[in-house]
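Annex B, item 7. Sequence and structure tokens for protein A, then protein B.
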Amino acid sequence: MNSTYAVLIVDDSTTNRSYLHYILDEEGYEVWEAPSGEACLERVRQKQPRIILLDVVMTGIDGFETLKRLKADPQLAWVPVIMLTSTDDQASKIKAFELGAVDYIVKSANPAEIKARIRVHIRLSLANQELLQSKIESMGQIQAAQRALLLQPSDLPEARFSVFYQSFHEAGGDFYEVEQLAEDIFIYIIIDVAGHDVKTSYITPAVKVLIKQYSNPTYTMEEAFGYMGDILSQTVCQDTYLTAAALKINRRSLKATYLTAGHPPILYIPSQGTVQLLQTKNPPVAMMEGLQYHTETIDISSGDRFVLCTDGLLEMQDSVSGKTKAWVDSVKDLAAAGAELKTEPLGSFPQRLVQHFAELGCSNDDIAVLVTEV
């Protein structure tokens, strides 16, 4: 028999259980019985019914306590519970609904009414489950589509980069891109869209298109960010904004031009010398029209590395206090980690950096780390 339509009757009265069993069995339901609240909890942890009929007054733990424990368990909380009682007591009804019951039936109710109520709530349960599954599948498709937009190191090996990407929610607000401007000239960009709802994932394709459009020798980095901000603020970012870090490496002239816009600094790890944090004072992108941006340029050497990351790497929640550390307070940890991992192979560097910060606390945000080598 299909357990999709299984009904669990919980009552310490054998007579009551037998009566309900009879009227439901003739309707074609798979009927299970439990003589107590304890037996109910044990049974549902082994196999979950579609709906539970739960008596209020029982020996041992009563129906209210049983209901409370059911709803406290994430694996069982979705199972609808109809409370059974001998009296039509208003206070008991309110308490049952407050604890999570979906309905309340007086035992003296007409069999047709009992069956009708059970039918309604099983239909609702099935519909909710189908809706949830549809949402999960939809979110999975969004996540897959978003990840498909992310360039992998093997797609552009001459750019010499490695990445770590992890979305905290189904659809992340972090995004990175690598574009080749000319032979030996590449631009690396990492972006964090404010917010974590599904709509942030729809901004990603628009940003990618704009980055590609403006990643050519006819636009400076300052101009590209100004134009992107103007367009985004009038379209997909009317009620949000994004922070960004961008780096242009010219391996011919051995020059690096960088820009940060309301974003954590870029970590510079020279092959010889001390690590540095590179940051420019620019506003976030798309906060309003007409914003201007400026860059800085430094000399670089073969073997130098640059690390671009989003704030999810740096904003750690302390396991003891529960407080989240702001990224501005964690940049010194980023510099220390960069010095410690200086000799780490390029391919494993992002993962090792994430592991380093995971030991300091947990992150409740998307994490993106991009590392490139001159």
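Protein B:
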Amino acid sequence: MRFKKGQSGNPRGRPAMSKEVRDAIQANGEVAVRRMSDLLNDDAAWGPDGWLKPVVQIKLLAIAHERAFGRAGAVSLNQQIVVAKPGENVGGRTSRQARQFAALIPKQ
């Protein structure tokens, strides 16, 4: 089905959320942020031998990054990506989690 130019595909918008559901989400938001922070600070969770599966580590980092800095723009196929080797200082910063994340990336 095609829409006419300027016509919304969802003219009624998002369905209204009940006050009870909205209150429950807001009440648990602080707990969710605290738990995510605990996971991000748990060094035993990270790296190839961490208790979090590598795919979960990447998803958690992506969510945390998106919440902190907003969604990333599109990446072109020829864009240069700089990945720090463990112990390497990139941009004046190093972190144990960044080094462990870099260790998850397959070596070429």
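Comment on protein B: Helices lie at 19-41, 54-69, 96-104.
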